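Now for today's protein:

——
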Amino acid sequence: MNFISVVGYGWSGSSAYMDLLQEFDDIDVFPGEFRLAKDPHGLIDLENSLVDNWEFIRHDVAIREFKSYCEMLSRETGVFKRAGKDFSRKLNIDFIETTNKFIDGLTDISYLGDSSLHRYNINAMEYFYKRLRTKFSAYSHNNTKMHLAKPSREKFIIESREYINNLFSEFCKRKKVDTIVLDQAVPITNIHKGAAYFENMKVIVVDRDPRDIYANLAKRNSLIGPDIHKNDSAKKYIKWHLKLRESFNLTHEEPNILRVSFEDLVYDYENIVSKISKFLGCKQSIALKREFFNPEYSKKNIGLWKTYKNQDTMNYINKELKEYCYNVE
C-alpha cells in the first residue's frame, strides 16, 4: 500500500494540490483531513509515551487518550451531535474494532487496576464516592482495565504500519487502487517521524506567500487569525511563521519529499504537473484535466495581500520574510 501526504503551513494552498491529485490515474483521495499520526493523543504522542518516555502509569493513560481520540474520529457528527470525523463510514470498517486490535498488538498484559490519575477528569461527587469505595471496600469497585505496554520502537512502527494498512484496506478495495492521498497526515515540523507510520509514503510540501497566508488567516479567523484580526499582530505572525519553518529547512533533495508552491501551480501549471507526475510515478488523466483544479480560477487567490487594509503590515512582513514572499514580475 502506498501513501501520499500533502502538507502545508496553514492556509498555504495544500487544498489546491489535493484537488489536482483527484485528476491523477490509479490513486484516490481520502475525503477530509487524516491527522491520526500528528494530532495530540495521536500516534506520535502514543509512541512518545510507550517507547521514549515510558513510565508505569503514563503508558496506560496515553493508550486511554489515544482510544478516546479514535472514538471521536470514528463517530458521525452533526448539528446537534458531538464532534466526529465519521471515519468508520468513510473507510467502510469498524474503526474502533481495528483500533482495539492495534492496541492489543502493542500490549504485553492487561489487568484490573486503579490509579489516582484516572480520577483527574471526573466531577467532585463521583470523586467523593470513589474515595469512599476505596477506603471501606476490601475489593476496590474502582478497578478498571489497565494496560502494560512497553514495545520496542521497531515493534511500534511495525504495528502502526499494519494498523494504517488495515484502516485503508476496504477503502482501497472499493476504489480499486493501492495508493491513497491524505491531507495533513504528517506534521510539517517532523515529517520523517510521522511518515514512519506509513508504508511507502511520499510527501508534497506546499508553500505560499506569507503575506497571503496572513491575509487569509485574518479573514478566516483561523489558527493565529483571531489575534491578527483583532490586533493586526504582524510581529506575532512572523514569529509563528518562522517557528513553523525552522524545523523543516531541507538542505538537500530527498527522494520522498517534494517542495512546491501554490503560486507556481497557478502560473507554471504544466511544469508543476509534470514534476508531480515524475515524483509520484503516475500521470494526470487527460479526461479529468482541469476538472478539479483550474489554474485560471485560482489566480484570484494570489496577491490577496495587496488589498489588505494595512499595507504597512504587509511591508513589514515582506521585509522580515522576504525570502519566502512570491513576487510576479
